[in-house]
Amino acid sequence: QIKEAVREAVQIQTDRLQDSLQRENDELLRNSDENMKKVVKGLVKNQVKEQVSRILPRIEESVNATLEAEALVEAYKEDKAILDTYGDSTILKRRREDDDQEGPSAGPNQGSKRQNEGGEQASASTLSEKATKGAGGSTTRSQS
Fold it and tell me: Region Disordered: start and end of each range (predicted)?
């Protein structure tokens, strides 16, 4: 009976020690895991900062270039719309001013002047096209 009591006491003490060691081991692993997570977070945070500082200027350049391109396209569209709207009237106004500077023609030449005006009309539309192309090119160059 004494042997049995001693064996039982030893077994109880052994179980207690094992439980105590297991708790300490679990706590050590938990602390170790938390510390490793903190270290990894710190390393990742530093790497992200480095990479962002390298990438951010490129992103800014790209965004600025895109915005500039969009602004240039918008300005071109506005210039084209203005030219489409007012370009022909400006050319016609110049033509009238040129006609006014020539003055009224004498009787027999009136018929020939009308014929010339008919011929000039085709050249006026050609001038309109040239002015449209030329003005469009000049606005593009001035914005570059």
Answer: 84-144
